[in-house]
Task: inverse folding
Protein backbone atom coordinates (compact mmCIF):
# COMPACT_ATOMS: atom_id res chain seq x y z
CA UNK A 1 0.00 0.00 0.00
CA UNK A 2 2.57 2.58 1.01
CA UNK A 3 4.72 2.31 -2.16
CA UNK A 4 1.71 2.72 -4.54
CA UNK A 5 0.45 5.84 -2.73
CA UNK A 6 3.95 7.24 -2.91
CA UNK A 7 3.97 6.65 -6.69
CA UNK A 8 0.64 8.51 -7.13
CA UNK A 9 1.85 11.46 -5.11
CA UNK A 10 5.06 11.51 -7.15
CA UNK A 11 3.00 11.51 -10.40
CA UNK A 12 0.90 14.48 -9.19
CA UNK A 13 3.99 16.44 -8.25
CA UNK A 14 5.43 15.82 -11.69
CA UNK A 15 2.24 17.05 -13.34
CA UNK A 16 2.11 20.21 -11.20
CA UNK A 17 5.72 21.10 -11.72
CA UNK A 18 5.32 20.56 -15.49
CA UNK A 19 2.23 22.83 -15.69
CA UNK A 20 3.68 25.53 -13.46
CA UNK A 21 6.80 25.66 -15.61
CA UNK A 22 4.64 25.98 -18.60
CA UNK A 23 2.63 28.75 -16.90
CA UNK A 24 5.69 30.47 -15.54
CA UNK A 25 7.40 30.40 -18.94
CA UNK A 26 4.41 31.79 -20.78
CA UNK A 27 2.80 34.25 -18.29
CA UNK A 28 1.85 36.90 -20.83
CA UNK A 29 0.79 34.54 -23.61
CA UNK A 30 -2.80 34.83 -24.79
CA UNK A 31 -5.09 32.45 -23.08
CA UNK A 32 -6.47 29.78 -25.44
CA UNK A 33 -9.60 27.95 -24.42
CA UNK A 34 -9.30 24.29 -23.75
CA UNK A 35 -12.17 21.91 -24.22
CA UNK A 36 -11.03 19.69 -21.46
CA UNK A 37 -12.00 22.26 -18.78
CA UNK A 38 -15.71 22.04 -19.57
CA UNK A 39 -18.33 24.70 -20.02
CA UNK A 40 -18.57 25.72 -16.34
CA UNK A 41 -15.11 27.01 -16.19
CA UNK A 42 -15.05 30.70 -17.40
CA UNK A 43 -11.68 30.45 -19.09
CA UNK A 44 -8.58 28.33 -18.96
CA UNK A 45 -6.72 31.51 -18.04
CA UNK A 46 -8.92 31.90 -15.02
CA UNK A 47 -8.04 28.46 -13.95
CA UNK A 48 -4.37 29.22 -14.49
CA UNK A 49 -4.70 32.41 -12.44
CA UNK A 50 -6.50 30.44 -9.77
CA UNK A 51 -3.79 27.87 -9.74
CA UNK A 52 -1.03 30.45 -9.77
CA UNK A 53 -2.64 32.30 -6.88
CA UNK A 54 -2.76 29.15 -4.77
CA UNK A 55 0.53 27.80 -6.02
CA UNK A 56 2.77 28.92 -3.14
CA UNK A 57 0.28 27.52 -0.76
CA UNK A 58 0.04 24.30 -2.72
CA UNK A 59 3.83 24.19 -3.03
CA UNK A 60 4.09 24.55 0.70
CA UNK A 61 1.52 21.89 1.18
CA UNK A 62 3.31 19.71 -1.30
CA UNK A 63 6.58 20.31 0.43
CA UNK A 64 4.95 19.40 3.69
CA UNK A 65 3.51 16.36 2.05
CA UNK A 66 6.88 15.54 0.56
CA UNK A 67 8.45 15.88 3.92
CA UNK A 68 5.78 13.82 5.56
CA UNK A 69 6.07 11.26 2.79
CA UNK A 70 9.83 11.15 3.30
CA UNK A 71 9.36 10.69 7.01
CA UNK A 72 6.65 8.22 6.36
CA UNK A 73 8.86 6.37 3.91
CA UNK A 74 11.64 6.28 6.42
CA UNK A 75 9.24 5.05 9.04
CA UNK A 76 7.75 2.57 6.62
CA UNK A 77 11.15 1.27 5.77
CA UNK A 78 11.84 0.74 9.47
CA UNK A 79 8.46 -0.87 9.87
CA UNK A 80 9.07 -2.98 6.78
CA UNK A 81 12.35 -4.11 8.20
CA UNK A 82 10.57 -4.90 11.41
CA UNK A 83 7.83 -6.73 9.55
CA UNK A 84 10.36 -8.68 7.55
CA UNK A 85 12.13 -9.48 10.73
CA UNK A 86 8.85 -10.47 12.37
CA UNK A 87 7.87 -12.52 9.32
CA UNK A 88 11.21 -14.26 9.38
CA UNK A 89 10.80 -14.78 13.06
CA UNK A 90 7.27 -16.07 12.55
CA UNK A 91 8.40 -18.37 9.79
CA UNK A 92 11.23 -19.73 11.79
CA UNK A 93 8.91 -19.94 14.80
CA UNK A 94 6.34 -21.69 12.63
CA UNK A 95 9.02 -24.02 11.42
CA UNK A 96 9.92 -24.73 15.03
CA UNK A 97 6.34 -25.04 16.25
CA UNK A 98 4.84 -28.50 15.74
CA UNK A 99 1.34 -28.76 14.33
CA UNK A 100 -1.58 -29.20 16.72
CA UNK A 101 -1.96 -33.02 16.63
CA UNK A 102 1.72 -33.30 17.41
CA UNK A 103 1.29 -30.85 20.22
CA UNK A 104 -1.57 -32.91 21.63
CA UNK A 105 0.42 -36.04 21.21
CA UNK A 106 3.43 -34.49 22.89
CA UNK A 107 1.21 -33.29 25.74
CA UNK A 108 -0.11 -36.82 26.10
CA UNK A 109 3.42 -38.09 25.99
CA UNK A 110 4.43 -35.62 28.69
CA UNK A 111 1.59 -36.83 30.89
CA UNK A 112 2.67 -40.37 30.22
CA UNK A 113 6.22 -39.47 31.09
CA UNK A 114 5.08 -37.91 34.38
CA UNK A 115 3.06 -41.04 35.13
CA UNK A 116 5.94 -43.28 34.17
CA UNK A 117 8.22 -41.22 36.33
CA UNK A 118 5.90 -41.73 39.30
CA UNK A 119 5.67 -45.45 38.55
CA UNK A 120 9.39 -45.70 38.19
CA UNK A 121 9.92 -43.93 41.53
CA UNK A 122 7.56 -46.43 43.18
CA UNK A 123 9.32 -49.26 41.41
CA UNK A 124 12.68 -47.91 42.44
CA UNK A 125 11.44 -48.02 46.04
CA UNK A 126 10.33 -51.60 45.53
CA UNK A 127 13.60 -52.46 43.91
CA UNK A 128 15.41 -50.92 46.85
CA UNK A 129 13.38 -53.02 49.27
CA UNK A 130 13.94 -56.15 47.17
CA UNK A 131 17.63 -55.39 47.08
CA UNK A 132 17.57 -55.24 50.88
CA UNK A 133 15.83 -58.61 50.99
CA UNK A 134 18.31 -60.02 48.51
CA UNK A 135 21.25 -58.82 50.54
CA UNK A 136 19.76 -60.20 53.74
CA UNK A 137 19.13 -63.51 51.97
CA UNK A 138 22.66 -63.43 50.68
CA UNK A 139 23.91 -62.96 54.22
CA UNK A 140 21.80 -65.90 55.34
CA UNK A 141 23.04 -68.00 52.44
CA UNK A 142 26.57 -67.10 53.33
CA UNK A 143 25.90 -68.14 56.95
CA UNK A 144 24.39 -71.40 55.74
CA UNK A 145 27.34 -71.98 53.42
CA UNK A 146 29.66 -71.42 56.36
CA UNK A 147 27.60 -73.86 58.42
CA UNK A 148 27.58 -76.38 55.60
CA UNK A 149 31.37 -76.11 55.29
CA UNK A 150 31.70 -76.69 59.04
CA UNK A 151 29.37 -79.68 58.80
CA UNK A 152 31.27 -81.05 55.81
CA UNK A 153 34.51 -80.77 57.75
CA UNK A 154 32.91 -82.53 60.67
CA UNK A 155 31.44 -85.19 58.39
CA UNK A 156 34.79 -85.92 56.76
CA UNK A 157 36.18 -86.80 60.17
CA UNK A 158 35.86 -90.51 60.86
CA UNK A 159 32.61 -91.35 62.59
CA UNK A 160 33.04 -92.52 66.12
CA UNK A 161 30.96 -95.40 67.38
CA UNK A 162 28.91 -93.63 70.01
CA UNK A 163 26.63 -96.52 70.92
CA UNK A 164 28.32 -99.33 72.66
CA UNK A 165 26.35 -102.56 72.71
CA UNK A 166 27.49 -105.26 75.06
CA UNK A 167 28.31 -108.59 73.51
CA UNK A 168 26.60 -110.71 76.15
CA UNK A 169 23.09 -111.79 75.41
CA UNK A 170 20.37 -113.59 77.35
CA UNK A 171 16.64 -114.02 77.77
CA UNK A 172 16.48 -110.87 79.88
CA UNK A 173 18.82 -108.63 81.89
CA UNK A 174 18.87 -110.92 84.94
CA UNK A 175 19.93 -113.75 82.65
CA UNK A 176 22.71 -111.53 81.32
CA UNK A 177 23.81 -110.67 84.87
CA UNK A 178 23.72 -114.36 85.71
CA UNK A 179 25.96 -115.02 82.70
CA UNK A 180 28.54 -112.64 84.04
CA UNK A 181 27.31 -109.24 82.95
CA UNK A 182 28.42 -106.63 85.49
CA UNK A 183 28.01 -103.41 83.58
CA UNK A 184 24.81 -101.49 83.04
CA UNK A 185 24.25 -100.75 79.36
CA UNK A 186 22.69 -101.90 76.14
CA UNK A 187 22.25 -105.61 75.52
CA UNK A 188 20.39 -107.81 73.11
CA UNK A 189 17.87 -110.10 74.77
CA UNK A 190 15.70 -112.84 73.38
CA UNK A 191 12.92 -114.05 75.64
CA UNK A 192 11.88 -117.67 75.09
CA UNK A 193 8.75 -116.72 73.18
CA UNK A 194 10.46 -114.09 71.03
CA UNK A 195 11.21 -114.85 67.41
CA UNK A 196 14.11 -112.42 67.32
CA UNK A 197 16.32 -110.60 69.76
CA UNK A 198 15.84 -106.95 70.60
CA UNK A 199 17.83 -104.25 72.31
CA UNK A 200 17.19 -103.29 75.94
CA UNK A 201 18.84 -101.22 78.60
CA UNK A 202 20.02 -103.43 81.46
CA UNK A 203 20.56 -101.93 84.87
CA UNK A 204 22.96 -104.24 86.62
CA UNK A 205 23.74 -103.27 90.21
CA UNK A 206 26.48 -104.23 92.61
CA UNK A 207 24.45 -107.24 93.70
CA UNK A 208 24.26 -108.41 90.09
CA UNK A 209 20.62 -107.77 89.94
CA UNK A 210 19.73 -107.35 86.30
CA UNK A 211 16.77 -105.03 85.79
CA UNK A 212 15.27 -104.87 82.29
CA UNK A 213 14.12 -101.27 81.87
CA UNK A 214 10.81 -100.90 80.00
CA UNK A 215 10.07 -97.20 80.52
CA UNK A 216 12.10 -94.10 81.29
CA UNK A 217 11.10 -90.47 81.81
CA UNK A 218 13.82 -87.98 82.63
CA UNK A 219 13.37 -84.52 81.21
CA UNK A 220 10.39 -84.45 78.88
CA UNK A 221 12.56 -84.74 75.78
CA UNK A 222 10.39 -87.51 74.34
CA UNK A 223 6.76 -86.96 73.44
CA UNK A 224 4.59 -89.74 74.85
CA UNK A 225 1.59 -88.68 72.77
CA UNK A 226 1.78 -91.73 70.50
CA UNK A 227 -0.62 -94.14 68.79
CA UNK A 228 -1.27 -97.87 69.20
CA UNK A 229 1.43 -99.01 66.77
CA UNK A 230 4.04 -96.79 68.35
CA UNK A 231 3.21 -98.03 71.85
CA UNK A 232 3.24 -101.58 70.46
CA UNK A 233 6.69 -101.26 68.85
CA UNK A 234 8.20 -98.81 71.29
CA UNK A 235 9.50 -95.28 70.80
CA UNK A 236 12.11 -92.91 72.10
CA UNK A 237 15.80 -93.76 72.41
CA UNK A 238 17.81 -96.28 74.33
CA UNK A 239 21.21 -95.04 75.43
CA UNK A 240 24.16 -96.91 76.94
CA UNK A 241 24.38 -94.39 79.77
CA UNK A 242 20.64 -94.37 80.50
CA UNK A 243 20.17 -90.66 79.72
CA UNK A 244 17.28 -90.83 77.27
CA UNK A 245 13.54 -91.35 77.43
CA UNK A 246 11.68 -94.27 75.89
CA UNK A 247 8.86 -96.80 75.98
CA UNK A 248 10.27 -100.22 75.18
CA UNK A 249 7.10 -101.38 73.47
CA UNK A 250 4.06 -103.42 74.52
CA UNK A 251 4.99 -106.43 72.39
CA UNK A 252 8.46 -106.69 73.99
CA UNK A 253 7.02 -106.15 77.47
CA UNK A 254 4.50 -108.90 76.70
CA UNK A 255 7.31 -111.27 75.61
CA UNK A 256 9.49 -110.41 78.61
CA UNK A 257 6.69 -111.00 81.14
CA UNK A 258 5.08 -114.12 79.67
CA UNK A 259 8.05 -116.17 78.50
CA UNK A 260 8.81 -117.56 81.93
CA UNK A 261 6.75 -119.21 84.62
CA UNK A 262 8.88 -117.47 87.23
CA UNK A 263 7.07 -114.45 88.74
CA UNK A 264 8.29 -111.15 87.38
CA UNK A 265 8.38 -108.04 89.51
CA UNK A 266 7.58 -104.63 88.05
CA UNK A 267 9.59 -102.06 89.97
CA UNK A 268 8.45 -98.49 89.62
CA UNK A 269 10.93 -95.81 90.68
CA UNK A 270 9.82 -92.21 90.96
CA UNK A 271 11.62 -88.92 91.53
CA UNK A 272 9.78 -85.68 92.31
CA UNK A 273 10.94 -82.12 91.67
CA UNK A 274 12.44 -81.91 95.15
CA UNK A 275 14.72 -84.79 94.20
CA UNK A 276 13.01 -87.24 96.55
CA UNK A 277 13.00 -90.83 95.32
CA UNK A 278 10.32 -93.40 96.04
CA UNK A 279 9.39 -96.78 94.61
CA UNK A 280 6.62 -99.38 94.33
CA UNK A 281 6.92 -103.08 93.50
CA UNK A 282 4.28 -105.34 91.93
CA UNK A 283 4.90 -109.01 91.59
CA UNK A 284 3.55 -111.54 89.10
CA UNK A 285 3.41 -108.68 86.66
CA UNK A 286 2.26 -109.66 83.19
CA UNK A 287 1.27 -107.87 80.05
CA UNK A 288 -1.07 -109.91 77.80
CA UNK A 289 -0.89 -110.33 74.06
CA UNK A 290 -2.02 -107.78 71.51
CA UNK A 291 -5.13 -109.95 71.03
CA UNK A 292 -5.99 -109.14 74.65
CA UNK A 293 -5.03 -105.51 74.14
CA UNK A 294 -1.84 -105.88 76.18
CA UNK A 295 -3.84 -106.28 79.37
CA UNK A 296 -2.04 -105.50 82.64
CA UNK A 297 -2.25 -108.04 85.46
CA UNK A 298 -0.25 -108.47 88.65
CA UNK A 299 -0.50 -110.67 91.69
CA UNK A 300 -0.14 -108.13 94.42
CA UNK A 301 1.60 -105.02 95.67
CA UNK A 302 4.88 -106.16 97.02
CA UNK A 303 5.68 -102.90 98.78
CA UNK A 304 7.29 -99.51 98.33
CA UNK A 305 7.24 -96.06 99.94
CA UNK A 306 5.45 -94.52 96.94
CA UNK A 307 2.27 -96.39 97.87
CA UNK A 308 -0.02 -98.65 95.87
CA UNK A 309 -1.49 -96.32 93.26
CA UNK A 310 -2.21 -99.21 90.87
CA UNK A 311 -4.95 -100.25 93.30
CA UNK A 312 -6.91 -97.05 92.62
CA UNK A 313 -7.46 -94.00 94.77
CA UNK A 314 -10.37 -92.48 96.62
CA UNK A 315 -10.33 -88.91 95.32
CA UNK A 316 -13.37 -88.05 97.45
CA UNK A 317 -15.47 -87.16 94.42
CA UNK A 318 -17.43 -90.41 94.33
CA UNK A 319 -17.47 -93.68 96.34
CA UNK A 320 -16.63 -95.56 93.15
CA UNK A 321 -13.44 -93.51 92.60
CA UNK A 322 -11.09 -96.15 93.88
CA UNK A 323 -12.75 -98.95 91.90
CA UNK A 324 -12.70 -96.94 88.70
CA UNK A 325 -9.11 -95.79 89.05
CA UNK A 326 -7.52 -99.16 89.75
CA UNK A 327 -5.29 -100.62 87.05
CA UNK A 328 -5.04 -104.33 87.66
CA UNK A 329 -6.77 -106.14 84.80
CA UNK A 330 -7.02 -103.10 82.53
CA UNK A 331 -6.36 -103.33 78.83
CA UNK A 332 -4.02 -100.87 77.16
CA UNK A 333 -5.54 -97.80 75.51
CA UNK A 334 -4.00 -95.26 73.16
CA UNK A 335 -5.28 -92.08 71.54
CA UNK A 336 -6.48 -94.18 68.60
CA UNK A 337 -7.64 -97.28 70.51
CA UNK A 338 -10.12 -96.98 73.35
CA UNK A 339 -10.14 -100.05 75.63
CA UNK A 340 -11.01 -98.24 78.86
CA UNK A 341 -14.06 -98.39 81.19
CA UNK A 342 -15.07 -94.81 80.46
CA UNK A 343 -17.75 -93.72 78.02
CA UNK A 344 -15.23 -91.37 76.47
CA UNK A 345 -11.58 -92.07 75.73
CA UNK A 346 -9.18 -91.54 78.64
CA UNK A 347 -6.14 -91.96 76.41
CA UNK A 348 -7.44 -89.43 73.95
CA UNK A 349 -8.17 -86.93 76.71
CA UNK A 350 -4.73 -87.40 78.24
CA UNK A 351 -2.98 -87.77 74.90
CA UNK A 352 -1.06 -90.88 75.89
CA UNK A 353 -1.09 -94.65 76.14
CA UNK A 354 -1.73 -96.50 79.39
CA UNK A 355 -3.76 -99.18 81.11
CA UNK A 356 -6.70 -96.84 81.49
CA UNK A 357 -9.72 -97.57 83.67
CA UNK A 358 -12.00 -94.56 84.18
CA UNK A 359 -9.37 -93.23 84.14
CA UNK A 360 -6.38 -93.61 86.50
CA UNK A 361 -4.69 -93.17 89.86
CA UNK A 362 -1.31 -93.88 88.33
CA UNK A 363 -0.25 -92.63 84.93
CA UNK A 364 3.45 -92.67 84.14
CA UNK A 365 3.06 -91.95 80.43
CA UNK A 366 1.30 -88.63 81.06
CA UNK A 367 2.26 -85.21 79.78
CA UNK A 368 5.58 -83.88 81.02
CA UNK A 369 5.20 -80.70 83.08
CA UNK A 370 8.42 -78.83 83.82
CA UNK A 371 8.49 -77.95 87.50
CA UNK A 372 5.83 -80.51 88.34
CA UNK A 373 2.83 -78.46 89.30
CA UNK A 374 0.11 -77.80 86.79
CA UNK A 375 -3.41 -76.49 87.00
CA UNK A 376 -6.75 -77.50 85.57
CA UNK A 377 -6.19 -74.72 83.04
CA UNK A 378 -2.89 -76.29 81.94
CA UNK A 379 -4.67 -79.61 81.66
CA UNK A 380 -6.99 -78.24 79.01
CA UNK A 381 -10.60 -77.20 78.76
CA UNK A 382 -11.95 -80.33 80.40
CA UNK A 383 -9.13 -80.83 82.89
CA UNK A 384 -7.32 -83.46 80.84
CA UNK A 385 -3.74 -83.68 79.58
CA UNK A 386 -2.82 -85.10 82.97
CA UNK A 387 0.80 -85.18 84.02
CA UNK A 388 2.95 -88.04 85.31
CA UNK A 389 0.82 -89.15 88.20
CA UNK A 390 1.21 -91.42 91.20
CA UNK A 391 -1.55 -90.19 93.50
CA UNK A 392 -0.59 -92.23 96.57
CA UNK A 393 2.49 -89.99 96.78
CA UNK A 394 1.61 -86.66 95.11
CA UNK A 395 -1.88 -85.42 94.28
CA UNK A 396 -3.24 -85.33 90.77
CA UNK A 397 -2.06 -81.78 90.07
CA UNK A 398 1.56 -82.77 90.56
CA UNK A 399 3.56 -84.23 87.71
CA UNK A 400 6.64 -86.24 88.67
CA UNK A 401 10.10 -85.42 87.35
CA UNK A 402 11.51 -88.86 86.63
CA UNK A 403 10.11 -92.35 86.32
CA UNK A 404 11.53 -95.76 85.66
CA UNK A 405 9.63 -98.99 85.05
CA UNK A 406 11.80 -102.07 85.12
CA UNK A 407 11.46 -105.84 85.39
CA UNK A 408 13.29 -108.36 87.54
CA UNK A 409 12.50 -111.91 88.57
CA UNK A 410 10.84 -112.08 91.98
CA UNK A 411 13.63 -114.32 93.15
CA UNK A 412 16.14 -111.50 92.68
CA UNK A 413 14.25 -108.49 94.00
CA UNK A 414 15.24 -108.91 97.60
CA UNK A 415 18.90 -109.38 96.71
CA UNK A 416 21.11 -106.57 97.92
CA UNK A 417 19.75 -103.48 99.60
CA UNK A 418 21.34 -104.66 102.82
CA UNK A 419 19.47 -107.92 102.85
CA UNK A 420 22.15 -110.46 103.61
CA UNK A 421 20.05 -113.34 102.38
CA UNK A 422 19.93 -111.74 98.95
CA UNK A 423 23.66 -111.28 98.84
CA UNK A 424 24.19 -114.83 99.98
CA UNK A 425 21.70 -116.00 97.40
CA UNK A 426 23.58 -114.03 94.74
CA UNK A 427 26.89 -115.37 95.92
CA UNK A 428 25.63 -118.85 95.50
CA UNK A 429 24.94 -118.38 91.81
CA1 LIG B 1 -14.01 -95.58 76.49
Result:
Amino acid sequence: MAPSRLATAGGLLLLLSFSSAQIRGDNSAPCTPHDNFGTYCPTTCGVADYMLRYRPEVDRDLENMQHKLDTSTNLTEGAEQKIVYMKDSTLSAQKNTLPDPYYKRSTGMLEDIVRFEKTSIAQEQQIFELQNIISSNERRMSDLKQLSIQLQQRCTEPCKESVEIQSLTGTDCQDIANRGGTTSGLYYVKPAKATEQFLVYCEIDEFRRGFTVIQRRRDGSEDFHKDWIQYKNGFGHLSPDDTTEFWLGNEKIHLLTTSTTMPTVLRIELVDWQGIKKYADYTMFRVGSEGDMYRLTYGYFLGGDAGDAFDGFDFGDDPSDKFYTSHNGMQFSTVDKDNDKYQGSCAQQDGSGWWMNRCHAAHLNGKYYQGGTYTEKDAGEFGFDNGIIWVTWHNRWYSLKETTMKLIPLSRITAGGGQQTGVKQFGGL
The two ends are 152 Å apart (CA to CA). The chain has ten helices and 14 strands. Residues 268 and 405 are 5 Å apart (CA to CA). The chain has a mean pLDDT of 82.
